[in-house]
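Would you kindly consider the sequence and fold I have copied below?
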Amino acid sequence: MTKQSESQPTIKLAVFGATGGTGKEIVSQALAAGHEVTVLVRDSSRLSVKHDKLYLVIGDVLNPEKVEETLAGSEAVCCSLGHTANNPDNVVSEGTRNIVECMQKQGIRRLVVVSALGVGESQDQVSLAFKMMMKTVLRKAYEDKERQEQIVRESDLDWVIVRPGGLTNAPATGDYQFGLDPAISGGQVSRADVAAFVLQQLTDDTFLQKTPAIT
């Protein structure tokens, strides 16, 4: 399948992981589309985007009170949490647990999560070399992603888990593969294209409670 291309209504969106490569693209594209965006960041200097519809909450995703503050008034949520050297090994899963619980508390239904190809049943869609990396240098990160997906799957939310292949900083092309076909292999895809696909899932039910790959 190729790019989806339907216009969206503007919504109030909360974004977690906004200072990461894909998160920054999600924020920028969401603002360009007219959405109102609230982000939770530990360090505001790491988010260079400035916009009159961008609202910052300073804090940590492991703090439920800050997660609640970020979600207040939102209609949908994008979660693009990742690992850095300064984060605990469980930051993605426990941060996602806080997001899910606070969404349920506030009655927010739509959650789009950026995971990774190779997680869960998609492990056979990546190369042998990458599988070896998943078992060694990326082991803790992938174990945390597995826990994250389980938390989302076990929720009663209207979720979509997006599994990108190898991420690049190339510009958006609109030319990519996506879907549930296990034959889709883990090629490269730009963060900009992933962000565009993620934003489409906010209002499209094609992959509701499913795990599409994008490469």
Remarks:
- Residues 10 and 35 are 5 Å apart (CA to CA).
- The chain has one domain: 12-214.
- Residues 12-214 form a domain with the Rossmann fold fold (CATH 3.40.50.720).
- The longest helix spans residues 91-106.
